[in-house]
Design a protein that fits this description.
Helix content is 35%, strand content 18%. It is an alpha/beta fold. The strands form two sheets. The protein has a nine-stranded mixed β-sheet. It has a two-stranded antiparallel ribbon with strand order 5-6. Helix 2 links the parallel strand 2 and strand 3. The protein is globular, with a radius of gyration of 19 Å. The protein contains 14 helices and eleven strands.
Length: 388
């Protein structure tokens, strides 16, 4: 352990017509600093995660926190980007600075403003996280990329559309009690399983309920050197953290196996000196329901092709053997790309400190987090535990 989360903030994800990225950053930065009970003058470095890539004209997000916090004016600040794993990349960059002794107290912000952009343009922007020479013309955009993964999985292991619907229903049930979620509605299995006017195919076999939503949102963390963090009001330590990259083109990999994710999980669990069963819950990257299904297998919860058991037998329900996405996940909470990894860490820290209110997982002691960029290309795993 070298670093701890000592404070955080998270705005409500969704369609935010009232705030720009700058406004959302200002909101969560002020709240995170207050939650950590520090002064802006204590911050040694700032890392802002945003994908952007054309969602909006304002760029140079690393410079935005200081606009609203004048005491951050001369603090080194930078933007970090790594597709949908941008938030976790920003966290790792902050921790690298701490471990290198270049900083003791860091501010990490994840933010994305997506809903000002047309659906068609959003789809094309997100395709930037795929291998454009081969996948850039995929019908259905980034959803189409994951539809090819789902079709390959179904061809190998049989049609699992009902399993995907059960995953969606679970996450919407969890998200219905998350006040920060984009969609706070328990849709139920039947709605998620049926193809209808309100739940059409986006890219077959993926229905609308199989896809995370286009969202605006921001989240922030104060991450501090462990020696200082031991004097903080609360301290959630990184027992392990791992980043494993895989090859970008899907054509060069087995589509139905997230091998980079499997390695990241294996290394992180080894580093933490624990088994998967020791975890109290997991926040995982369900950008699409097929992703969560394959991630059950990648984390070692089931054998390859048997991920369906985890949802059918109730293992991943909130009161099950290993609750998955008690926050509602990306599916219900929303997926403002640059904010997602930071959000997952905020949600997990809330659980470990008993601050998750109705979302609270009983006796939460150890959290697992998986955040990925692209189709399991940039794979980040964190293991968190409260030490203060």
């Amino acid at each position: 352990m070298s670093s701890c989360i000592i404070g955080w903030a998270h705005n409500k994800f969704g369609v935010n017509k009232d705030q720009s990225s700058e406004n959302m950053i200002a909101e969560v930065v002020e709240k995170a600093i207050n939650h950590a009970e520090i002064s802006p003058k204590d911050i040694d470095a700032i890392y802002v995660g945003t994908f952007n890539n054309g969602f909006q004209k304002q760029d140079f997000h690393g410079a935005l926190p200081a606009v609203s916090q004048i005491d951050l004016r001369y603090v080194p600040a930078m933007r970090v980007e790594n597709a949908c794993a941008t938030g976790s990349a920003a966290i790792h960059t902050a921790m690298n600075a701490i471990e290198a002794k270049r900083a003791k107290t860091t501010l990490v912000v994840g933010v994305e403003k997506m809903t000002d952009t047309s659906s068609k343009k959003v789809g094309d922007i997100l395709l930037g996280a795929s291998y454009r020479p081969e996948e850039g013309e995929t019908k259905g955009g980034f959803t189409g990329v994951f539809a090819t993964i789902a079709n390959a999985y179904f061809q190998k292991y049989g049609d699992k559309s009902d399993i995907l619907a059960k995953i969606a229903a679970k996450n919407h049930e969890n998200g219905s009690i998350n006040p920060l979620a984009h969609m706070q509605k328990n849709l139920g299995f039947d709605f998620c399983n049926d193809v209808s006017e309100k739940n059409p195919y986006v890219a077959e076999p993926l229905r609308r309920t199989d896809c995370s939503m286009v969202s605006d949102g921001a989240a922030a963390l104060i991450i501090q050197d462990i020696e200082l963090a031991l004097f903080a009001k609360r301290a959630v330590a990184f027992r392990a953290r791992r980043h494993v990259n895989d090859i970008l083109p899907l054509s060069k990999r087995e589509k139905t196996e997230f091998e980079g994710a499997r390695q990241a999980w294996s290394y992180a669990l080894q580093d933490a000196k624990i088994n998967l069963d020791d975890l109290s819950f997991v926040e995982t990257h369900d950008c699409f329901t097929i992703a969560e299904l394959i991630e059950y297998e990648a984390m070692g919860l089931t054998k390859l092709g048997e991920g369906y058991k985890a949802i059918e037998e109730g293992w991943v329900q909130k009161n099950g053997r290993l609750p998955i996405n008690p926050s509602g996940g990306l599916k219900s909470k929303g997926h403002p790309v640059g904010a997602t990894g930071v959000s997952q860490h905020v949600m997990s820290a809330m659980q470990l400190t008993g601050e998750a209110d109705e979302m609270q997982v009983k006796d939460a002691k150890l959290a697992g987090i998986f955040n990925m960029g692209g189709a399991s290309v940039a794979n980040y795993v964190s293991i968190l535990e409260r030490i203060r």
